[in-house]
Design a protein that fits this description.
Strand content: 15-25%
Shape: globular
Helix content: 10-25%
Number of domains: 2
Order of helices and strands: EEEEEHEEEEEEHEHEHEEHEHEHEHE
Number of strands: 19
CATH class of the largest domain: Alpha Beta
CATH topology of the largest domain: Metallo-beta-lactamase, Chain A
CATH architecture of the largest domain: 4-Layer Sandwich
Radius of gyration: 20 Å
CATH superfamily of the largest domain: Ribonuclease Z/Hydroxyacylglutathione hydrolase-like
Distance between the termini: 40 Å
Length: 331
């Protein structure tokens, strides 16, 4: 049976439907898994994404020709049948199922298998071939349980506030920042946000997503006007003049990379919280097993390590070179 998808220099292509999934070069028709910048790029003729992804795409890409689709809704495109299913990565994120003549392939985009209370929970989609990320495809990557993570962050913030320090927490503007907002205790003090994060908060609130009250950081805001605050900042803002306005601070970074020694130091952070919107090692393996697929393509991350592991486990595993960048692209 012919392959449902092929891998080109423009992106993942479906000949039967004449469309691409998350292409990185301009094409006429693009199906988009989610709104992070390495998956949703400008320059496409037509876009198709979930209703939950569309507002952020419009915010980031401007006036684009964008159609939306509900989770689970089946749509015929040429000789292919497509549907979008929750990926659990960020709000609105999807895996895309493509069926052609009884053969079913699924493109995962980015995903995580642990429900975070913010994104639509991951749903395994039975298929013959599964195209998976493996951003954190090594056994060393294992995420902190949600209840423990929540306690760690709130204890850190409360201790800093009691010591007269501002808490600066680095997190990506779409997904991670809002997820952390749902875990913190707003009674501890005011919550301030970097402009990129607050702009995304506004879009998501407009979709009906409930977040705690936050205050956009403006030039007149300092540690004196908002003592004991938690500041949610983009990673690039850590250690900059923007961050130094907050006086005595404790800085933390929330990322799966905090599982690696030395990364926290390079991020100019005092504290690291091990959390990601991507699947950890156990999550990747559980997701793949749940699909029932025998053919696996690894697109980005620790692809060589993960391919060897999957082959040892009996899968027909392959590596696909793409422009997807996982966590690093979400800045």
């Amino acid at each position: 049976m012919a392959d449902v998808l092929t891998f080109t220099d423009r992106g993942i292509y479906c000949p039967a439907g004449d469309f691409y999934i998350d292409p990185w070069k301009p094409v006429d028709r693009a199906l988009i898994t989610h709104a992070h910048s390495d998956h949703a790029r400008p320059g496409m003729g037509r876009y198709l994404a979930t209703k939950g992804t569309a507002p952020v795409m419009r915010h980031r890409l401007g006036d684009i020709q964008l159609q939306t689709i509900n989770y689970g809704e089946k749509r015929k495109i040429g000789d292919a049948e497509v549907s979008f299913h929750p990926a659990g990565h960020v709000p609105g994120s999807a895996q895309i199922r493509i069926a052609v003549k009884g053969e079913i392939w699924v493109v995962s985009g980015d995903y995580k298998t642990v429900a975070d209370g913010l994104s639509e929970p991951f749903e395994p989609v039975p298929c013959h071939a599964f195209i998976t990320e493996c951003t954190f495809g090594m056994p060393i990557f294992k995420w902190t349980p949600e209840d423990v993570l929540t306690q760690q962050i709130n204890d850190w913030w409360a201790a800093n506030a009691a010591a007269g320090k501002t808490s600066i927490l680095g997190a990506y503007a779409l997904g991670k920042a809002q997820r952390l907002l749902t875990t913190v205790n707003p009674d501890t003090g005011p919550i301030l946000t970097h402009g990129a994060i607050e702009a995304t908060n506004t879009v998501l609130r407009g979709q009906g997503i409930t977040l705690p009250d936050t205050t956009l950081v403006t030039p007149d805001i300092t540690h004196k006007t908002h003592p004991g605050a938690l500041v949610l900042a983009t990673p690039s803002a850590l250690g900059t003049t923007w961050a130094r306005r907050f006086g005595p601070t404790s800085t933390a970074f929330a990322s799966g990379w905090m599982a690696l020694r030395g990364v926290r130091r390079r991020r100019a952070a005092d504290r690291g919280f091990i959390v990601s919107d991507h699947a950890d090692w156990d999550g990747l393996n559980a997701a793949i097993k749940a699909t029932g697929a025998t053919k696996i393509f690894a697109t980005h991350g620790y692809t060589s390590v993960f391919q060897r592991w999957l082959r040892d486990e009996g899968y027909d595993a392959h590596i696909v070179t793409t422009d997807y960048q996982g966590d690093e692209a979400e800045e």
